[in-house]
């Protein structure tokens, strides 16, 4: 009986492990806003992103060599470059967008990824998720709206359009990653290294002067921020995200990573001396409720359809 119970629990434990990894990715990325904000006050967006990807690429290259990974196949090379382009686009759009809009607008608009991703995945698979899933997704978005609108919703501007574009590209990126890597034998480390190399080349080429200036002027605190963005937010998060998405659906991953605004606010409150009022707290509760409700609906749906 104990053996039977153990076998029944193993799939659930595996699923929760994937969920935990994706939540940790959301936590790490939530903390990236404060680091990026501080760094972009000292250097250009492209220079900061170049340093982030260069650090990530170097760390991944060391891991790749130590693990004696094989050279990527032609298919893996194409997938890695394609995902690298979309990942670089997301980060550029997000960072530039935040520079032109309010944090309230940015947090709300980027959360649209939660809804767009399952729509894209359903269209690609020609199989719609149950309606309650979208209700849960909308509930989470409403929660984000309350969370980030604690101080009022600002008028839309060019920055809002950039963040909207980032949300759309992020949804496309997550969906593509799931469909292009799930069931394939391509090394996760190799694919992540290729993405980092693409970002490093793109942003270094775009602003090499700003990169040199940043390297020569950054102090210890700034370099700690760069290492956080490069190692935690890029190396760990990219590897963990790809590992997890290979073991779940893009829609489920998007819901879990959609908790990123919660972690961003918690980091802002604890480290950035920002205030969270009653409305924001209600929003956080709605996000958590919508996310976990959506998880259960999506997991049940996947089991039913086989």
TrEMBL record:
Q: How does it sit in the membrane?
A: Multi-pass membrane protein
Membrane-spanning segments = 46-64, 76-93, 99-120, 132-149, 193-214, 220-239, 275-294
What's in the keyword line of the UniProt record?
Answer: Cell membrane, Membrane, Transmembrane, Transmembrane helix
GO CC terms in record: plasma membrane
**Protein origin, superkingdom:** Bacteria
Name of the protein: DMT family transporter
Q: Which residues belong to any copy of the EamA domain?
A: 19-148, 158-292
Q: What is its main location?
A: membrane
One Pfam family assigned to this protein is: EamA
The UniProt similarity line reads: Belongs to the EamA transporter family.
- From the Swiss-Prot or TrEMBL record, state where the protein is found: Cell membrane
